[in-house]
Specification:
The complex is a heterodimer of chains A (257) and B (14). With 257 residues, chain A is mainly beta. Helices cover 14% and strands 47% of the residues of chain A. Chain A is globular, with a radius of gyration of 20 Å. Chain A starts with a strand and ends with a strand. The mean pLDDT of chain A is 96. The chains are: A mainly beta (257), B mainly beta (14). At the A-B interface, strand 10 and strand 20 of A face strand 1 and strand 2 of B.
Amino acid sequence: MFEARLIQGSLLKKLVDAIKELCTEVNWDISNSGINMQSMDGSHVCLVAFNLRADGFDHFRCDRPLTLGINLGNLAKILKCSGSNDIITMKADDNGDTLTLMFESEKQDRITDVDLKLMSIESEHLGIPDQDYSAETSMPSSEYQRIVRDLSSIGDTVNISATKEGIKFSAMGDIGTANITLRQTSSADKEEENVKIEMKEPVLLTFALRYLNNFAKATPLSSTVQVFLTKDLPVQVNYNIQDLGYVKYYLAPKIEE
Amino acid sequence: MSAQKKISTFFSPK
């Protein structure tokens, strides 16, 4: 038996919206420590992972580990039936073939329950090695969203470089070129509005903007985002979900042949 | 020309 109640149900809706375009059919691994998912996108270019900790839920019960095969598009359709202030409860039996979702309005005067059919999904787990990052940047998630969106109107790929000058995003396309450089800041009113850059060594990597743009769908989940760059390795883009867990995206670089 | 790498080039199955 699995049962989890999330007071801030809108977080589940935002999480599914943040990953559903990259991954359509995924396995959720449920254990008494929480809910985990890892999935590659259809073209196997990026990896998406999330963790929702059991202690982030109002109530969490999992008698034995379960794997729930979920079509995220269908789950997103169901979550559209929930109100933005609803409390969401998820339930599944150990050998059941459905996930029950219950939406309770704030005043608890309206209750919706929906059964989502589960699927059997074959997926392989990739091991993510501990990486020694060349550069780690923390910035407002709205800033990241704007950079990748603005550069997408210039080109399809972006060069990201970290130097002592800051972190530079460069795109080149038929209409011209664009560079956006972010420098470390410390003057913002709120700590999360600052840009923090920790650079161990200069690094330059090339990525497809289409995916970096897709990662920005997680913007509503967190006010900040961390971007980890490592020489010749995938970029890691992390959104921490306050008091609940995280969603992480990894994108393989484009490399000169 | 730069080529898009697959994620499995960097991370291996567990």
